[in-house]
Write a structure and sequence with these properties.
By secondary structure, the chain is mainly alpha-helical. It has a domain of about 100 residues: Methane Monooxygenase Hydroxylase, Chain G, domain 1, CATH 1.20.58. The chain has four helices and no strands. Helix 1 packs antiparallel against helix 2, helix 1 runs parallel beside helix 3 and helix 2 packs antiparallel against helix 3. The radius of gyration is 37 Å and the shape is rod-shaped.
């Protein structure tokens, strides 16, 4: 009888340590994912660098961090708990969406800069108030009228 109780106690201890080990592994896995997520967010310029206290952007490094999480997802396929799987999928989804936003932002900035360099800033041509004729065109009209008069006026003979 004593041997049976001892085996039951050992069995419970093994099971408890197995459960504790699984919980510990899950916590470590989540921490690993969070580490790469924080790095990617920082590299995208979404979060301040805690060391330099500056917002820094390096989209190549951000892509590398996302790629690392994708590799972890591929390598751990069918070996994660449901919670771990969902957490990793959600994290990757968020990172990919943020990354795409940053890529689009860069493209829009480039288009804006190209538009500025291609089209020099035009100065307004009409300095008159709305509803009034442009004073420059009036001056041009007077000058052309005077030129016409000179053509039509007979000179000294």
């Amino acid at each position: 009888m004593r041997g049976v109780r001892r085996n039951e106690t050992l069995s419970r201890e093994v099971n408890m340590s197995k459960d504790e080990s699984e919980k510990k592994d899950e916590a470590l896995f989540v921490q690993l994912v969070l580490m790469f997520q924080a790095a990617a967010m920082q590299q995208m310029g979404k979060v301040q660098n805690p060391v330099t206290r500056k917002v820094e952007r390096n989209l190549q490094q951000a892509r590398f961090s996302i790629d690392m999480l994708e590799m972890i997802q591929d390598r751990t396929k069918n070996n994660l708990s449901e919670n771990e799987k969902k957490f990793l999928e959600h994290t990757l989804f968020e990172l990919r969406m943020n990354y795409m936003d940053e890529i689009k932002r860069d493209e829009q900035q480039k288009k804006g800069e190209e538009a500025k360099t291609e089209e020099p800033e035009k100065k307004p041509t009409n300095s008159a108030k709305p509803g009034q004729p442009d004073p420059r065109s009036q001056e041009e009209g007077k000058a052309s009228q005077q030129a016409e008069k000179q053509k039509n006026t007979p000179g000294p003979t």
